[in-house]
Amino acid sequence: TNIFKETTLAQVAGCLHYSGASKSLEDFEEAIRLGVAEQWHGRS
Question: Could you give the CA distance from residue 38 to residue 40 in angstroms, rounded to a whole number?
Fold first, then answer.
């Protein structure tokens, strides 16, 4: 069973607003790299 009421993208898209400079693919990749490194704490 689903505990959440069904919604459409139009109903929730307002929470996606972002104001600021656009992020490049390189920005995303660097953020992912840092996040993975942070989770692994130097483990391989």
Answer: 6
Mean pLDDT per 10-residue section of the chain, whose length is 44 residues: 88 85 96 93 68
SS3 42: coil
Token pair in block for residue 11: 């109903």
The ranges assigned to domains in the chain are 9-40
- Location of structure tokens 């139009």: 10
The pTM for the full model equals 0.51
* Distance from C-alpha of 37 to C-alpha of 31, rounded to nearest angstrom: 10
